[in-house]
Amino acid sequence: MNAMLPVNLDRDRLRAHHRLMWRIRALEEVALRGLDEKLVLGAIHPSIGQEAVAVGVVAHLAREDLLLSTHRGHGHTLAKGASSGAMLRELLGRDGGTCGGKGGSMHIADFGVGMLGANGVVAANIVIAAGAAHAVKLRGENRVVACFFGDGAINRGPFLEGLNWAAVFGLPVLFVCEDNRYAATTRTDTMTAGPGASARARSLGVPAEEVDGNDVLAVDEVAARLVGEIRAGGGPRLLHAHTWRVTGHTGADPGAYRSEDETRRGAALCPIRRARETLAIAGLILAELDGDEAEARREMEAAYAEAQAAPFPPFAAAFSDVQDIGAPQHAAAA
Amino acid sequence: MSELTYLEAGRLALAEEMRRDPLVWVVGEDLGRGGVFGQYRGLAAEFGPDRISDAPISEAAILGAAVGAAMMGTRPVVEMRFSDFALCAMDELVNQAAKARFMFGGQTRVPLVVREPIGMWRSSAAQHSQSLEAWYAHVPGLVVACPATPACNKGLLKAAIRCDDPVVYMEHKGLWPMEGEVPDDPDFTVPFGEARLVAEGGEATIVAWSAAVHVAADAAQTLAADGIWVDLIDLRTLWPWDESTVRRSVRKTGRLLVAHEAVTVAGFGAEIVATIAEAEAASLRAPPRRLGSPRAPVAYAPTAEAALHVTAEMIAGAVREMVQGAPR
Ligand SMILES: Cc1ncc(C[n+]2csc(CCOP(=O)(O)OP(=O)(O)O)c2C)c(N)n1
Ligand SMILES: [Mg+2]
Predict the structure, then answer these.
(1) What is B196-323's CATH topology?
(2) What is the pLDDT of residues B32-45, one digit of tens each?
(3) Which of A99, B186, B279, B298 could cross-link A103 (Cys pair, CB 3.0–4.6 Å)?
(4) What is the atom index within ligand 1 of the atom nearest the CA of A180?
(5) Which residue in chain A is spatially nearest to B93 when comparing CA positions?
(6) Residue A7 confidence class, pLDDT cut points 50, 70, 90
(7) Which pLDDT tens digit goes with each residue over B196-248?
């Protein structure tokens, strides 16, 4: 353990990060239980172990800023300000979910807080984020768009097309590559030519930084700089965050394709534990820090219980919000 | 009324809508110099490069960015150059544009128009000639428009731009120079799902859209000269399609022929014929029929390209068989 404290440590800020990381972890642990209990119906992709990237980056987004996420998007969504109650209802496919139970984990979205959607298609959100930023620029607004994606996404065309687009039009986008070294069961370095996301970004003239994505203060610091440059009109930036996915790819995946050694080393990088150690050295009482965890767990347990009590959406939800012109007609939907 | 070409009518529709609504903007390759067919000539000078925006050759980004920009409240019109190139943006259109409103539980709308010029034209060969309108009609969330005349190209494009749903807007390349009377009223729009009756008669119903309407109109003239009068229906939009007009006509004539340029197999004619077979079996005096292209890619050589054309003779022949009974 490193007993050195970061210079200029903002204890309150780190404490807030600690709380939020616990809220994300607790939400996903409850969701995993929901999967076992057959209440969470579809696949979920936990971000356990990766919370620091979401928390450190989203800390620099204001409510009117925008965010686009991936299949592994619970952390980003909660950090952007979505309610845990609505999120868990969505995961359980219930009325009152963020998307009325029609999207589930992979399409979770809360436009009210600027969270423009997770996406079930790897890399698809990158060009959509560029477009959201394009609209921001056309309308002369001062908003930043953050776009998260995995290390596997950089091998799809929209990564090139979206970064090129954002650079050519000088758009306010922070691209965040959460590099957890795996895409599903495949080690990404076996399928990726060259050194990866940041090098590819730089080749397009998009300034990029690499960061230890399990160190929330490091992410916070570099995100502050990058978002500041974007807000100042500097055009897009890319943050390449190295992190580790503690669970398998989905809630049902034991992740057996990773070596025991790799798994052990990855787990030791836990960003919450690291924040806790720093806070303890800075003089916080451990019991208080335990309280952050307990409070987060209480919140998520209550949200989970409420979600279970919520009804499923009505039959007619199958036919609503498809389209206005030529909307589906279904006798039983009325 | 003004005499305009199909191409000019589309350009006028766009200009009028851009004047009316500052949130409308256009994005695609080479638009600053007027677009590949000249559909955008002069517009960059009036609206500037932000609203008539050039784009990199990145079809996925053009359409994907339009989805993001539409979700943010602007109204993008996307130019895909040839409908064939839109296939590079199928995820963005089918998984994103068509799904966002539904899967996010109604939190957002995607009011975009994708212009996808279709059809066989001047030996454009296999990758610049396709008519894939049936693909889009199959996808919940999309509206599909296939204008056949200058007036329709004005009114339908305006309706598409004003529509809050994503619209796949398929102009036929062969129709660009076609001239016709176009209403001057800047609020003239063509409603989706309302067919146009091109010719009227009691012996048979011919349904067509896009360039095939004109081929069928020639056939109707030939037939009329022989004393066979037909209803010719220009469907104008495939989703929604004007089922009630077609059914009303078939109840009168008892005979249905659908003619389209697209491949017959799993073409939209199959949907229409199946619907009528199910719903109007009692009215039918002959088995309903389809005419379309054989299931072959489009060739470059004019002789081989022509092998795929649905001609006026074929349409007239099919109607004659239906009316008089197949020749032995
Ligand atoms: C276009 C597409 N191909 C394949 C998949 C299936 N898939 C879902 S997540 C995933 C791995 C993505 O890896 P990465 O981008 O590194 O993100 P991570 O899961 O590691 O967060 C794959 C292959 C998909 N959803 N979309
Ligand atoms: Mg990964």
Answers:
(1) Rossmann fold (3.40.50)
(2) 999 999 999 999 99
(3) A99
(4) 20
(5) A124
(6) confident
(7) 999 999 999 999 999 999 999 999 999 999 999 999 999 999 999 999 999 99
Pairing mode, strands B75-79 and B24-28: parallel
Q: Which residues of A touch B61 (CB under 8 A)?
A: 127, 130, 158, 161-162, 164-165
Minimum CA distance residue for ligand 1 atom 20? A183
Q: Report the alpha-carbon distance of residue B161 to residue B182 in Å, rounded.
A: 18
Quick check: B74 and A138 CB within 8 A? yes
Q: What is the ipTM of this complex?
A: 0.96
Please indicate whether residue A150, judged by its CB atom, sits closer than 6 Å to ligand 1: yes
Q: Which ligand is nearest to the CA of A44?
A: 1
CATH 3.40.50.970 domain position(s) in chain B: 2-182
Q: What is the pLDDT of residues B88-120, one digit of tens each?
A: 999 999 999 999 999 999 999 999 999 999 999
Nearest residue of chain B to residue A168 (CA atoms): B56
**Can you tell me which atom of ligand 1 is nearest the CA of B91?**
1
Give me the pLDDT at residue A4, please.
74
Closest to A99 (Cβ–Cβ): which among B74, B105, B140? B105
Does domain B2-182 match CATH 3.40.1390.20? no
Predicted model pTM? 0.97
Domains of chain A and CATH, by start: 11-308 (3.40.50.970)
- B142-174 CB burial, b ≥16 within 10 A, e <16: bbbbbbbbbbbbbbbbbbbbbbebbbbbbbbbb
Beta strands B204-208 and B230-234, pairing class = parallel
Yes or no, beta carbons of A103 and B105 under 8 Å apart:
yes
Mean pLDDT of all residues belonging to chain A: 96
CATH 3.40.50.920 segments of chain B: 196-323
A112 with B106: Cβ contact below 8 A: no
